[in-house]
Amino acid sequence: MYKLIQEGQAKTYIPKATKISKKLPVFYNPLMALNRSISVLVLKNIPNKNMQIGLPLAGTGIRGIRLLKELPKNKIKFIYFNDHSKNAVNLIKKNLALNKIKSRFKLFNHDANLFILENKGFDYLDIDPFGTPNPFLDSAVKALSRNSILAVTATDTAPLAGTYPAACKRKYWASPLLDSNKHETGLRILIRKIQLIAAQYEKALTPILSYYHEHYFRVFFRCEKGKTKVDKIINQHGMFNNAGPLWLGKLWDCKLVNKIAKQTELKIIKTISKECKINIVGFIDIHKFCKKHKLKIPKTETLLKKIKAAQTHFSPTGIRTKITENKLKKIIQLLS
What we know:
Blueprint: E1 2-7, E2 10-15, H1 33-45, E3 51-55, H2 62-70, E4 76-82, H3 86-98, E5 105-108, H4 112-118, E6 122-127, H5 134-142, E7 144-154, H6 157-160, H7 165-172, H8 182-199, E8 203-213, E9 216-225, H9 227-234, E10 237-240, E11 243-247, H10 254-261, H11 267-275, E12 284-285, H12 286-292, H13 300-306, E13 309-311, E14 318-321, H14 325-335
Parallel strand pairs: 3-4, 3-6, 4-5, 6-7
Antiparallel strand pairs: 1-2, 7-9, 8-9, 10-11, 12-14, 13-14
Helix pairs in contact: 1-2, 4-5, 8-9, 10-11
């Protein structure tokens, strides 16, 4: 029924399965290994210490076990593992013992929202559900302590990226757009929705690292309290290419991203570390741009040497640049 795997520095028993679904006896998604690795890197490089960490949807416990094994000891005071499944809690116990972890953790077998609200004062809270994070956002923002970090994953990318616009309006209070920028637009719509939930409680959520990868969106927010800070966040909401309202501010804290990039070979982080230097909303898909203007597609490396630009992690054919379309067109013509 279970098999042993290793992810990062953690050994973990996971369910034997051919398909990832909610019907698993204990939920584990191998495709989220990158998600968990980036979580380790973010927590390693923020200044917070002695953190109370909440994992309301803990599953096999792999995320928390990796944090306990891979972060410096002074980073974590306690990790609170919770899952509504008794099978999951029993497996977390087994996996903690397997990794010889005997302290700095507490186990709970509650509904996720009940767990969050009964254990307020989290310095780091990770909302990583199967599907939309919506059911957990209100309780999550209430439970954040001052200067804390909220991490949110959304795997319902189809509504956010414009495949199901009506569903996006219902769930995220915004209109998406099915174009080249659909995944950046979707990420920004998600960010705004979470910020609005927090704004009700005078908590300002600023993205410090956010990205899109394969089948999900992921955002790490820094939480600060105060009406003025919340107002500054809301003032950065607006429309882009007739999509939105959405977050028009920065998607990344460049200092943090650059610090992380020096410690990892993860391609997505390396790309974002260059991308974050071009502080604009949206990017240009070079293939579609050249098709529109009947131009020969240049090599990306050659083009990047001629203009101030960076590749975007949102698309292998996208570049982020501040130069005008007319100027870009002329430069590409010269390269042909």
